[in-house]
Each structure stands twice: as C-alpha cells, then as structure tokens.
Amino acid sequence: MSRPTELLRVAIAEDEPLARRALRRMLQEDPAVLLVAEVEDVAALTALLRHPTPVDVLFLDVRMPGGSVFECLPLVRPETLVVFTTAHAEHAAAAFDLDAVDYLRKPFGARRVHEALERVRRRRRITPTRTDADGHLLVRVGVRDVPVRLASVWRFEGADDCVRVVTADRKLLHAVTLQSLEEALAAQGFLRIHRRHLVNSGAIRALVPHDAHRLAVELPNGDRLVASRRGTSVLRAWSQRAAGAAAADHSAGGTRS
C-alpha cells in the first residue's frame, strides 16, 4: 500500500492580483495542498511570519510594496520552506544563497508549480541533522544553515516538531527530531536524559539527587534538568565511566612520575 501524500499548508505572498489568482488556481489543483493565507504587501507578510502557527511552504514574490522582502526572511521559521516567484532574473542567485527550495521565473505554468511542490516534499523527507568537519551542527535559522559549534551547546530540548538548541548565549529552533540528534551525536558525548532533553556531558557541572529514583543535572548557569528513571540510569553509567577514566589517567600519571 502506498503512503498517503502529506497535506501541505501553503501561503502565497504576491502583490499582483492576477498573478496571485493564477498561482492560487494552480496550487488548488493539488489535492494535498491546503491554502491557508494570501498576503500582498510586506506588512502583511511580516504578520504572517510572526503568526504562532507556521506554514509548511511560502510562495514568495521577491518584490512587494511596503519594504524589502529579504529583510523579512529572518522571521521565516525553520520548518517553513520558501519558493521564490518573480519576473526579475537578477534575484535568482540571492534566492539560492538563502537556500530556497525553488525559484519560479514569471510567467510560469502549472507544471513548474507542481515541480516546486515535489521539491518541497523531497526536502521535507530529508533528516536535517547535519554536522561539518569542524565540529559544527548546521542549524536551520530562517532560510539559512547556521553553523553552531557542538562544544558550545549545553542541551537540546524537544519543542513540538522542532528542537530548541541552547548554548551559553542563545537559543535557536532547529527543524529536526530529538531522536535523530541523539543518534547522530551519541559518539560526541550527548546524553538522552529525558524524553525532552539531550544534554552535552561536557556541560554537566554536577549530578544532584532529585528524589529517591531520579537525578538532576546542573548546567553552568545553575539550571537543573530532572532526568527520567531511564535517563538517571544513563547518567549513572556515564558517571561511572568518567570516574573510571579519571582513575586510569591518575594511575598512568603516577606511574610516569
């Protein structure tokens, strides 16, 4: 049995009424598209991007009245994919620099719209947990991949369909599951201590009892995260390994002296 096509929540940002109507008609030919919003200027686009419920796909005209569309892009949620639409070819390079899924040059037809939707679906099926050779996690912020040094990450916290990346000086949302991060970073000292928490062992300042069955970890800023019972077992095993490694290092140092 084939897997049903996921429903995509789509918004259109287009100031020309005829172009907006044509794009709406082409999108509605796809039964797995739910058109949830249409905006026609930068002020309305800003309000859309600040709405607490993000869209899956934004078809975005590069030029709209009321300001710069590109200045709005930092407001794009990590889980929202952008398809640029414009008659101005000079914006193509900038669009792809911003990791747009596709770039539709006006005038375009239904075939190109459906190709863009398929690119969106392929992108959404990709697990976005990626690291580079220099020890950075590539975190999706707006329409850019921002490298965050893994050693600087204190913890990851599950937040609905995203993960909150917490460092000493910032918090970022990343469109990835906590499970995929756990699998990708297990060898780099990250411990799953709770259904919602993945902690960098290098950021743990102390283990403290929470109750008769559970431990809590203390982070550099004094925050404490309570582990689940399973997470407590993970922490105890990690603590024993760390103590054993420290004892071995001490013994080796004494032998050398």
From TrEMBL:
User: Sites of the modification 4-aspartylphosphate?
Assistant: D61
For this UniProt record, the keywords arranged alphabetically read as follows: DNA-binding, Phosphoprotein
HTH LytTR-type domain residues: 137-241
GO molecular function of the protein, one example? phosphorelay response regulator activity
Give all residue intervals belonging to the Response regulatory domain.
Answer: 9-121
Query: Quick check: keyword Phosphoprotein in the entry?
Result: yes
Q: Does the keyword DNA-binding apply?
A: yes
What protein name applies here? Answer: DNA-binding response regulator
